[in-house]
Amino acid sequence: MLSFEQILKRVQKPAYYTGGEYGSVVKEKTPDLLRYAFCFPDTYDIGMSYLGGKILYGLINSMDNVWCERVFAPKDDMEALMRENNLPLYGLESLDPIREFHLIGFTLQTELSYTNILNMLDLAGIPLLAKDRPDPFPLIHAGGPCAYNPEPLADFFDFFIIGEGEEVQPEFIRVCQQFKEEGGSDKRELLRRLAAIEGIYVPSFYDVTYHEDGTIASFTPNDPAAKSTVTKRLVQNIDEIYYPDKVVIPFADVVHDRVMLEVFRGCIRGCRFCQAGTIYRPVREKSPAVLDRCAQTLIDNTGYDEISLTSLSTSDHTRLMETTDQLLSWCDPRKISLSLPSLRVDNFSTELMDKVQRVRRGGLTFAPEAGTQRMRDVINKQVTEEELARTCRIAFEGGWLNIKLYFMIGLPFETEEDVAGIADLAQMVVDTFYRCENRPKGKSPRVTISVATFIPKPFTPFQWAAQDRAEQVDRKIALLRDKIRSRKIVFNYHDRKASYFEAVLARGDRRVGASILRAFELGAKFDGWESHFSLDLWLKAFAETGIDPDFYATRPKARDEILPWDFIDCGVSKAFLWRENERAAMAAVTPNCREHCAGCGADRLTGGYCHARG
Question: Does the pLDDT value for residue 504 go beyond 60?
Answer without folding.
Answer: yes
